[in-house]
Amino acid sequence: MEQKIKAGRLIIFEGGEKVGKSTQIERLAGYLLGRGHKIVTTKEPGGGMHDIRKQIMRLDPNHPDLAYEELKLFVQDRTIHWNNLILPELNAGKVVLCDRWKYSTKAYQGHARGMDMKVIDASGNHAVDGKEADLVFLLDLPADAYLKRISKDNETEVTRFEGEKIAFHEKVRRGFLVQANEDPERWVVLDATQNKEKLALAIQKAVKEKLGL
């Protein structure tokens, strides 16, 4: 059963790698603060377990149950994150802006890694008491555009997921689009190739129209 929240709004930003989620979260936070709202920004993984990224990197990429091992870590992190940060802030009447949530797990471990979606749904819903976001922004970026961005950034160190082949990133993208198509009232799909200013304005418009913020 979905847990009722006394107040507050939960807005999630989803998308593949290098889509610009952190930039748009920062801009939306500034916009909402200017309108008098109390804002909390957070992200996953790492919202509950600070060392989860290191634990993920230590997993054997050739392990036959890699997706399940990743899922266990993400669910553990998400449970702590929900109970210790997100839920209390929502009940305090704040707007929580989160970079990734349970929808990423469905896209990465489900659609891209091929894990049973029923298992992912069950564990994900249990971690957050059946709660859904009030609004989900999908910053949609083609896989080839991601490769161009990571090449331009010239990073010397990439995460396990950033280093996956283009076919993996294409599956992740499709996984997000499938979820958006299944729940069009909650999800807003935006072209992440457009400039940051236009993207920020589109996000502000959607927040005002859909949530009245």
UniProtKB/TrEMBL annotation:
GO cellular component: cytosol
Molecular function GO terms recorded: ATP binding; dTMP kinase activity
Recorded catalytic activity of this chain's protein: dTMP + ATP = dTDP + ADP
Database matches in Pfam families: Thymidylate_kin
Presence of keyword ATP-binding: yes
The keyword Nucleotide-binding is annotated on this UniProt entry: yes
Signal peptide coordinates: none
Top-level taxon in the UniProt lineage: Bacteria
UniProt KW keywords: ATP-binding, Kinase, Nucleotide biosynthesis, Nucleotide-binding, Transferase
Biological-process GO terms, alphabetical: dTDP biosynthetic process; dTTP biosynthetic process; dUDP biosynthetic process
Domain Thymidylate kinase-like: start-end pairs: 13-199
Top-level enzyme category: transferase
Function description: Phosphorylation of dTMP to form dTDP in both de novo and salvage pathways of dTTP synthesis.
Similarity section: Belongs to the thymidylate kinase family.
Name of the protein this chain belongs to: Thymidylate kinase
Natural source organism: Candidatus Giovannonibacteria bacterium RIFCSPLOWO2_01_FULL_45_34
Taxonomic path: Bacteria, Candidatus Giovannoniibacteriota
Gene, per the UniProt record: tmk
